[in-house]
Specification:
236 residues; alpha+beta; ten-stranded mixed β-sheet; disordered N terminus; disordered C terminus; Ice-binding_C
Length: 236
């Protein structure tokens, strides 16, 4: 549940001689939630990009950690992304973020989406995807607005990544990191789904979503904890 307790890891990657150099940047959970009070609402998290150590930014990716936290099954499996924006405005509350428009123009129409798997019972496709289930339905997902409606009957305004799914965005133009910039992401339902170590910001445009540098270490740690737990139960 680390996402819910402020420990989402953002990894800033600079490509040099074909290798990615990563530096962690911390998220904080803002006060309050956004969305319709008639359904589970959206938690909003903020990262200060000035600490990423890059001269400019050209792309962003988000990956589900594959660790089952508060995820729902079927079409709502994995991290449920309400919105992702970058702004020069430093917000302290979810309500402040909900009123923002992104200062950085994302190429949402050409997003790089890899759907993850579904938890049983499965559905034909993940929520927020098109008829093939392979691409984002931007009219449904509306990833530029914090407008997610978390309902299993009439959901709207978000994208479910699926377990181990990912999405990447190139910006319409590179942005300089000289001025303060803040990355905001929304987790639909505020139920502790995990994007631990799975968010990267890139200096150059991307054509695919690389495996987050922090994710293998996190999964190794999670696996070790699971093994320790199984061993402890077996020997108890």
């Amino acid at each position: 549940m680390k996402l819910k307790t402020f420990a989402v890891g953002l990894v800033a990657a600079v490509f040099s001689h074909g290798a990615a150099q990563a530096a962690p940047v911390s998220f904080t959970k803002l006060t309050g939630v956004t969305g319709d009070p008639g359904a589970a609402q959206t938690a909003v998290f903020k990262a200060d990009l000035s600490t990423a150590g890059l001269a400019s930014f050209s792309a962003l990716s988000i990956s589900d950690s594959g660790v089952i936290g508060g995820s729902s099954p079927g079409e709502f499996s994995g991290f449920d992304l309400d919105a992702v924006i970058i702004s020069a405005t430093n917000c302290a509350s979810a309500a402040c973020v909900a009123a923002l428009t992104s200062d950085v123009v994302f190429n949402y129409a050409a997003s790089i989406f890899t759907p993850g798997t579904q938890l049983a019972p499965t559905d034909p496709k993940l929520y927020g995807t098109d008829g093939t289930g392979s691409n984002v339905d931007n009219a449904t997902a509306t990833l530029g607005s914090f407008d997610g409606y978390s309902s299993t009957i009439t959901p709207d305004g978000f994208l479910s990544l699926g377990v181990n799914g990912s999405i990447g965005f190139n910006f319409m133009s590179a942005i300089a990191a000289a001025s303060p910039l803040y990355l905001y992401i929304g987790e639909v339902g505020d139920n502790g789904e995990l994007a631990e170590g799975g968010i990267q910001i890139f200096e150059d445009p991307i054509s695919e979503v690389p495996l987050p540098a922090a994710l293998p270490l996190f999964l190794m740690g999670a696996g070790a904890l699971g093994f320790h737990g199984r061993r402890k139960r077996k020997t108890a």
